[in-house]
Amino acid sequence: MRAAPKDEFSKGKEWRLYDYVTRHFIASLMDDAEYDEILASKRIRYVFDVCGERFVFIYHEVAERGFLYAMPWKAKDLKLEEIDWAMPDMAEGDQLPVDEISVVRDTTKPPDYLRESELVALMDKNGIGTDASIPQHMQNVVDRHYVMICGPGEDGQRGEVISKGGKGKGRKGKGKGKGAKGEDGRPASRHMVPTPMGLSMLAAFEELDAQLCRPPIRAFMEKQVAQIAEGLLDKPDVVAQNLDLFYSKFVRFRENISSLDRFFMRKDQIGQSWSGGGQKRQGESWDGERKWQKGDSKGGVAGGGKKYGNSGKGKGGKK
User: Fold this and answer.
1) Highest mean pLDDT: which of 16-20, 60-64, 97-101, 118-122?
2) Which of 123-137, 177-191, 212-226 has the lowest mean pLDDT?
3) Do 152 and 112 form a contact (C-beta atoms < 8 A)?
4) Comparing C-alpha atoms, which of 150, 147, 195, 149 is closest to residue 176?
5) At what angle do helices 134-143 and 116-125 cross, to 10 degrees?
6) Which string of b and e fits 126-142 if b means at least 16 CB within 10 Å?
7) Concatenated DSSP letters of 125-169
8) Cα(42)–Cα(134) distance, rounded to whole angstroms?
9) Measured between alpha carbons, how far is 198 from 264 in angstroms, rounded to an integer?
10) What is the spatial distance between Cα 30 and Cα 66, in angstroms, rounded to a whole number?
11) Burial, 289: exposed, middle or buried (Cβ in 10 Å; 0-12, 13-18, 19+)?
12) How many helices (H) does the chain have, and how many strands (E)?
């Protein structure tokens, strides 16, 4: 095995990719990391009583670093708390002097938006998609403007929007986390941030059929497809079953679609109501010129430009 020197690579990102792949391969050949966790439930107890308040000291002793020699950053993922000093010998009942007392005040902070890698892991855990289809599923929700890719944020605010080229743009100086940039100016991590359209679409589906927003229904279909490949199920039976299931959902969705208008209102219409609950009155439709007019439609999809009348589909204005 010969390691390629860094000067053989013309671009920094090529070197980082090579370095990561090489380290990952070498780590796969090394031993597991072994560590001992010293905490209150183990043989050695480090519980300190200070004026009636009990404090538990937790730390880890790494017996064998194993693959951590090749991938030292994995120690952070394992949440190892190591100490660089020797713990003194103590026995139960020993009294120790209190050198200093301090009170630190802090507040909890909201977590950052889901990383792309975290979403992939959750989809795989819930049986949604395959290694080949998951990237396309994620790209679809981006292309349809349900989510946008942003850099790391801070205090619950999203980071800079990442363009298709991979670099951040917009919202300069806002929502950027510390160390948000890599060596080449690219964001340090990529996060899936839902758009107002995506949140409205999810809320609308939750209103009419929450099952469509849950992983099990898609995971069950994926499992059926795998069983077809294994010869356990017949394709025509699976297709017929799923067509019946989703057709019934479609019919129920269409019959109640007028109740979703409140999820797709323009900003200047928020807080207004056409029939007490933000729903369109039966027999009225949008004429595309910011006013309501009488019509035969029973409902419509706000923003979709389509509505369903007594005799099927008819053209509707945009909202």
Assistant:
1) 118-122
2) 177-191
3) yes
4) 150
5) 130
6) ebbbeeeeeeeebeebe
7) HTT-S-TTTHHHHHHHHHHTTSEEEE---BTTB--PEE-TTS-EE
8) 42
9) 11
10) 6
11) exposed
12) 7, 12
Query: What is the average per-residue pLDDT within 112-120?
Result: 91
Rounded to whole angstroms, the Cα distance separating 67 from 25 reads: 10
pLDDT, tens digit (0-9, with 9 covering 90-100), for 66-94: 888 888 888 777 777 777 788 788 888 88
Strands of the chain, DSSP E = 34-38, 47-50, 53-56, 59-64, 147-150, 161-162, 168-169, 191-194, 284-286, 292-294, 306-309, 312-315
Element (DSSP H or E) covering residue 208: helix 196-208
What is the rounded CA–CA span in Å between residue 306 and residue 314?
7
Rounded to whole angstroms, how far apart are CA atoms 68 and 60? 15
CA distance to 30, 284, 315, per residue, from 112 (Å): 33, 43, 42
Instruction: Give the closest residue to 249 by CA, choosing from 218, 202, 205.
Output: 205
Token pair listed for 111 = 């977590």
Cα separation values, 94 from 46, 88, 183, 298, Å: 11, 12, 51, 80
Count of residues in the chain = 319
290 within 8 A of 265, measured Cβ to Cβ: no
Give the confidence band of 140 by pLDDT, cuts at 50, 70, 90: very high
